[in-house]
């Protein structure tokens, strides 16, 4: 064991400079991203102020002025939301899937809040200026023909509200993933319809051709990014790598592994811990893409994913015909060795979250300990493979609601399983509730937040 520790320490020391450089590059990249985002936001405020919106004299004018800035900002943040959905590799590498998901959620909330504020202040302001009731003003706006694009704007707003409604956890649990995915595609339609209202109606854009051209450029750039990275790149890579299903293996109740082979897969530069968006080109599956992590360290010859049946799509993967063509977007995610800061590491997996952990263990030469959390023994998929890899693994099985279960993965339990926990990087992967619980207890056990790296498995 002493020799192994010395090798791990020496390896960590030799890799430290490259990791520091990676952190510096990431910090610089994030700085550039925020500079671009905030710079455009400042430009939008300038356009609004330059359009005379600060020189209002009546309450109605002040309210419509507020409506204009909330409308401009909501349109801008909606375009950002689309970019966040585009799965840009550069953003994935800089930010990571978990943080990008948080950004997407909060930006979505802000976008819809601004849309609602824009509608509210517009109706109120114009009702005061026109001396109409609220109901008459709404009818005049939509059906009066005075304001171009109001009907499509109303439809677009309704579509965005539908997307928000399906985003609540309780609703998503009642919907099939395929329906949830399809409804979220309506976000694109809602934003597209906003174009037909914003450009011909926006006060700043009607009076200023430069401002109108600026907004057109934002929309065109967003469309180019979406088409390029969500359509062109996957199709080109489909012809380039010729991915096909090579093998489907049942790993346990409701769990299958799918091996995908192709050509020149080393050029994907995939790493253990990353995931792809997989689209299987067979009947009933080609229309949707699902994120699945690699469950083996990539070797340049094939890629393997291990999937648990959690919905209609995943339940049918066991019947995939060998030879099925596959389109893959990725690799994505920063849940890799590049996050590692210490020579020793603890990897905590919950349920099917074992897949990237198993791949990380396979590619590691350092001092790793695995804690595998499950409710029942039959949910410990890939257990045999972990044992064959020779990793120090602890299997924590049971229900927190059962007597004594409240102690599972408590700070005291973690110290009992891994006495040198405070000296390790900690990687956590699993369902959101499990990961939040594990992170909270790992921090309570004395591990600083900067040494904790998380990947949440959720739709």
Q: Report the average pLDDT across residues.
A: 83
Report the C-alpha radius of gyration, rounded: 26 Å
How big a fraction of the residues is strand? Answer: 15-25%
- The helix content, as a percent range, equals 55-70%
Low-confidence region ranges? 1-5
- Biggest sheet features: 5 strands, parallel
Whole-number count of domains: 3
Amino- and carboxy-terminal Cα gap: 41 Å
What's the total count of β strands? 11
The helix-and-strand class reads: alpha/beta
H and E string:
HHHHHHHHHHEEEEEHEEHEHEHEHE
Question: Can you offer a commentary on this structure?
Answer:
Strands 9-8-7-10-11 form a five-stranded parallel sheet, sandwiched between helices. Helix 15 (about 430-445) links the parallel strand 10 (about 425-430) and strand 11. The protein is built from 15 helices and eleven strands. The longest helix has about 50 residues, at about 1-55. It is an alpha/beta fold. About 55% of the residues lie in helices and about 15% in strands. The protein has three domains: about 1-235, no CATH class; about 240-330, Elongation Factor Tu (Ef-tu), domain 3 (Beta Barrel); about 335-455, Rossmann fold (3-Layer(aba) Sandwich).
Annotation keywords:
three-stranded antiparallel beta sheet, alpha/beta, single chain, Rossmann fold
Topology:
Blueprint: H1 2-53, H2 59-85, H3 89-95, H4 97-130, H5 134-143, H6 150-167, H7 169-172, H8 177-201, H9 203-207, H10 209-241, E1 244-252, E2 255-261, E3 275-280, E4 290-293, E5 302-308, H11 312-315, E6 326-332, E7 344-350, H12 354-363, E8 367-374, H13 383-389, E9 392-397, H14 411-417, E10 425-430, H15 432-444, E11 452-456
Parallel strand pairs: 7-8, 7-10, 8-9, 10-11
Antiparallel strand pairs: 1-2, 2-5, 3-4, 3-6
Helix pairs in contact: 1-2, 2-4, 2-8, 2-10, 4-5, 4-6, 6-8
């Amino acid at each position: 064991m002493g020799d192994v520790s010395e090798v791990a320490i020496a390896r960590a020391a030799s890799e430290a400079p490259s990791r520091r450089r990676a952190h510096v590059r990431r910090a610089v990249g994030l700085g550039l991203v925020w500079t671009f985002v905030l710079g455009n936001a400042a430009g939008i405020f300038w356009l609004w102020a330059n359009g005379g919106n600060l020189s209002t004299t009546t309450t109605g004018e002040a309210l419509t002025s507020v409506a204009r800035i909330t409308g401009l900002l909501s349109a801008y943040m909606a375009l950002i939301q689309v970019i966040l959905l585009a799965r840009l590799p550069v953003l994935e590498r800089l930010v990571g899937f978990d943080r990008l998901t948080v950004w997407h959620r909060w930006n979505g909330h802000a976008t819809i809040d601004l849309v609602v504020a824009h509608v509210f202040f517009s109706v109120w302001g114009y009702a005061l200026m026109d001396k109409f009731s609220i109901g008459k003003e709404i009818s005049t706006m939509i059906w009066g023909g005075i304001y171009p694009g109001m009907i499509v704007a109303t439809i677009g707003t309704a579509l965005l509200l539908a997307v928000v409604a399906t985003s609540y956890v309780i609703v998503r649990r009642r919907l099939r993933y395929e329906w949830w995915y399809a409804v979220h595609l309506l976000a694109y339609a809602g934003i597209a319809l906003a174009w037909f209202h914003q450009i011909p109606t926006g006060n700043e854009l009607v009076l200023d051709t430069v401002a109108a051209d600026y907004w057109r450029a934002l929309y065109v750039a967003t469309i180019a990014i979406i088409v390029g990275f969500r359509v062109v790149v996957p199709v080109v890579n489909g012809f380039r790598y010729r991915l096909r299903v090579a093998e489907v293996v049942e790993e346990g109740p409701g769990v299958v592994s799918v091996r995908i082979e192709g050509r020149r897969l080393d050029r994907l530069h995939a790493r253990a811990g990353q995931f792809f968006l997989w689209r299987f080109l067979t009947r009933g599956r080609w229309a949707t893409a699902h994120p699945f992590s690699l469950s083996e360290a990539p070797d340049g010859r094939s890629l393997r994913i291990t999937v648990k049946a959690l919905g209609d799509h995943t339940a049918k993967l066991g019947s995939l015909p060998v030879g099925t063509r596959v389109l893959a977007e990725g690799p994505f995610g920063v849940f890799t060795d590049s996050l590692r800061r210490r020579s020793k590491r603890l990897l905590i997996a919950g349920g099917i979250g074992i897949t990237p952990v198993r791949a990380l263990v396979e590619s590691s030469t350092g001092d790793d300990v695995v804690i595998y959390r499950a409710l029942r023994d039959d949910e410990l998929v890939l257990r045999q493979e972990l044992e064959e890899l020779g990793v120090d693994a602890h299997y924590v099985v049971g229900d927190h609601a059962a007597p004594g279960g409240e102690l599972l993965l408590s700070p005291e339990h973690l110290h009992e399983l891994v006495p040198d926990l405070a000296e390790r990087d900690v990687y956590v992967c699993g369902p959101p509730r499990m990961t939040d619980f594990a992170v909270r207890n790992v921090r309570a056990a004395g591990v600083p937040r900067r040494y904790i790296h998380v990947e949440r498995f959720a739709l």
